[in-house]
Amino acid sequence: MQDEESLVRRAQKHDQEAFAQLYEEHFDRIYRYITLRIGDEMEAEDLTQQVFLNTLRSISSFRWKGIPFSAWLFRIAHNQVVDYFRKRKRTAVPLDEALASSDDNPQLVAEQKLDIEQILSASKQLTQAQREVISLRFASELSIAQVAEVMGKSQGAVKALQHSGIVALRKALSVTENEGKQRIR
Question: What is the pTM for the complete model shown?
């Protein structure tokens, strides 16, 4: 397999096969990131396609700076999500439970739905920046350096946001768990 840099350089020279390979390599992570951010699979598909159209239009302006190409793609995706929310003027983001599991076990599906609802409820207590870091780090599996590039922040700031976000999630989830145990009694 060719390295990413040569693929990008070929795509910059309008090599359709190279761009198609970049698309295939990055589509799922970009789609997952957008879906978790906006909570709508159909809209996420459209936005993901728009990310790649924007990428195709502007790939010639991409410059290597020691950061992976995917960080540039996630920055484009981030901007698409911001534009989406500006247009919708929404703050709450529902998550479609169908994304969580394709398992046919109803008990497992119900447990996962409850877990997702608890996480969504807990995540509402996070700042927008904390939610962004958690989504990029864990849903999109980006490194600290990549998240820093996407968000335009230092690595230290990303680490601090991740740490404070995880602490806040743990606290909120333990409160939710304790409330659930009290209701069962």
Answer: 0.60
Q: What is the distance between the alpha carbons of residues 19 and 130, in angstroms, rounded to a whole number?
A: 32
CA trace torsion 88, 129, 166, 27 (10° rounding): 60
pLDDT band, residue 183 (cuts 50/70/90)? low
Which fold would CATH assign to domain 1-94?
A: Rna Polymerase Sigma Factor; Chain: A (1.10.1740)
Please write the tens of the pLDDT for every residue from 13-46.
Answer: 999 999 999 999 999 989 988 887 887 788 889 9
Gap between the terminal Cα atoms of the chain: 58
97-185 CATH fold: Arc Repressor Mutant, subunit A (1.10.10)
Output the 3-class SS for 1-40.
Answer: CCCHHHHHHHHHCCCHHHHHHHHHHHHHHHHHHHHHHHCC
